[in-house]
Amino acid sequence: MDRNPPILHHNSRGRSTSSCNCGRKQAQREDPFDIKAANYDFYQMLEEKCCGKLERIHFPVFQPSTPDPAPACDEADEPPEAEAGGEGEQLKEKEAVGHTPGDSTSLSLALSLGQSTDSLGPYGGGDGGEGQEKRPSLVDRQASTVEYLPGMLHSGCPKGLLPKFSSWSLVKLGPAKAYNCHIGLEQPGFLPSSAFLLPWDVVIRCRPEEEMGLSEPLDTGSSSWPAPNKTLPGKRGGAGGLGRGRRGRDDVARAFVGFEYEDSRGRRFLSCGPDKVVKVLGPGGPKEPATRVLNCDMPLYIPSPAQGRGLKPHYAQLTRLFIVVPDAPLDLILTPQIQPGPPPCPVFHPEQAEVVLPPDGFWVLRFPYAYVTERGPCYPPKENQPLASYRVLRGILRANTASPAPQ
Questions:
Q1: DSSP 101-169
Q2: What residues pair up with 365 in beta bridges, in sequence order?
Q3: How are beta strands 268-273 and 250-263 bridged, if at all?
Q4: Long-range contacts of 5-11 (CB under 8 A, 24+ apart)
Q5: Which element (helix H / strand E) includes 296?
Q6: Distance between CA atoms of residues 307 and 310, nearest Å
Q7: Which of 91, 68, 96, 69 is nearest to 78 (CA)?
Q8: How many Cα atoms occupy the beta-carbon half-sphere of 231 within 13 Å?
Q9: Tens-place pLDDT, residues 213-257
């Protein structure tokens, strides 16, 4: 018996089609078996062919000060069972994530978006994950340059620790005028008539008696935000323009927002609500305002409109958020929070929890392909699980107006 067998990369021979960080190029990808392959390596490969030269906002990552940094761990938080200890050892060796015997030992099935998920277990291995979000002995730790976070950043992680790479991406496709609301996104894989961003009319307050530069939450009154199926008076047309309000005192700037979903066959579409796909049949772009998608929890998985011949539902996963910031005295503040499973599943967020998008930009936030904690992957929903438990928390975007007072 060979005591030193050769080490080979696991390959299920499963393939899927995915798009790059900015969405302009699609390619086939092997079924990934660790976090880095799922959330980083594939996109880095396409960077050289597509979006490598785009302007971007870099999320902070671990910067070592020693030649041999170690993964951070909390001995008090490790479960006493031998099988859980084995998981800890595997996480220390690489970013690959294991499970207890009887479960899938890879990310492969979890990343198939509803394909072959019969053997998938619940998040965290059952009731043992109840206390996962509480790490009292590490919660006050300052940023370290000798220890890194072995997994992804989420609400249960110790403060101040960063991963070696980011599972998120935020790139700029160009100025606001790079998006044409009459044509939509000109990218591959989109279903017909589904590549249009939703308009979002933002009031820029110019009255001197009001405070300037205050953030306007999405749940303010009807004077600030249009109700669903209603729009504010102002300039109509492309992004980046200002319109004059009916009272002559407020300017209205039009932004655009689009939640994009993609299935494992590379078919893409934008959503205008938790249960609705964008479908534009006439000129002028979609009529629904973006307030609906911004004021509610959006699903992380939804059934793909292009179902296959199989009996099991084929899911599409939220992969990108397109944001057009108009050329106006306006910042959009991006705060993505993802809960990829029912409680006690933690909430995932980028390494920079809040990002300010300056005026006049066409931005693309790429979400992680897989969500993984120290205890293992957060599996996609089975057929009998409610999709509402897998969600993007409301409040992902808010407006910050900084209009100078009239002279």
A1: TTS-SSSTGGGSTTSS-TT---GGGSGGGTTTT--TTTTTPPP-SSEEBSS--BTTSPTT--BSS-S-E
A2: 170, 321
A3: antiparallel
A4: 9/33, 10/106, 10/108
A5: none
A6: 8
A7: 91
A8: 19
A9: 444 444 443 333 443 334 444 444 455 555 554 444 578 899 999
Q: Which of 1-10, 206-215, 379-388 is least confident?
A: 206-215
Contact 120/382 with Cβ under 8 angstroms? yes
Predicted TM-score (pTM) of this structure: 0.75
- The letter for the amino acid at 392 is V
| Both tokens assigned to 366 | 């790429």
What's at 149, amino acid-wise? L
Give the burial class of 5: count Cβ atoms within 10 A of its Cβ; 0-12 exposed, 13-18 middle, 19 or more buried: exposed
Q: Which of 17-31, 115-129, 174-188 has the lowest mean pLDDT?
A: 115-129
Using the structure block, give the residue that is written with the tokens 């594939």. 42
What is the Cα–Cα distance from 54 to 314, expressed in whole angstroms?
33
Above pLDDT 70, what percent of the chain? 66
pLDDT level of residue 305 (50, 70, 90 thresholds): confident
Concatenating the DSSP letter of every residue in 45-94 gives HHHTTTTTTSEE-PPP----SSSS-EE---GGGS-SSHHHHHHHHHHHH-
Contact of 268 with 190, CB cutoff 8 Å: yes
Q: For residues 405 and 207, give the distance between their C-alpha atoms in angstroms, rounded to a whole number.
A: 7
Tokens of 243: 């319109």
Q: What is the DSSP letter of 41?
A: I
